[in-house]
Write the structure tokens for this entry.
Amino acid sequence: MTAALHHDVAPEDRLRADLYNYLGLMLSAPPDQMLLDQTAALSGDDSDLGRAITSLARVAKVTKPAKARSEFNALFIGLGRGELLPYASYYLTGFLNEKPLARLRGDMAALGIVRAKNVFEPEDNIASLMEMMGGMIVGRFGPPAGLDRQKTFFATHVAPWAAHFFSDLEGAKTSVLYASLGTAGRAFMEIEREAFRLTAA
């Protein structure tokens, strides 16, 4: 049971959190048949994000779990390393485990976010950051974070590199299902950046 059940969160914020959590789920491990079926059932409107989600659903409908696993492994694991290194430190400094990770760990401690015991990846990987944003919005780590706190976390840990990562995911040579996920992720990051910009007083 999560703390989120006890918090009154606006429907539009719950939808934002759901999309962050979905991206985190897809980027943390290859999707099983159930997640592929759920993805195939998604539908979008005529916005950039809506069209990206419709396209993602179409690809998911014809993707088998074994193919998704093979694609995920080629992108993120590979022999020695995958095609992409989905870490803030790498995108921002060219190296793993650098200052962006240290800064994130400090902010996680301040927000009461603790890495799960069975997770060994550096915390600045894209999947974890998507899950952290989703959790902050609905109050998984305590009371839901206000827009100011969300905006600060996004501006510090997500905005400087996530759209670039999702763009790389769109264009990765082994990317098919994940190319569509990259398009949706990039569109969502652009929406979030603009929405936070508009909250500036």
The radius of gyration is 16 Å. Residues 7-198 form a domain with the TorD-like fold (CATH 1.10.3480.10). The chain has one domain: 7-198. DSSP finds ten helices and no strands in the chain.
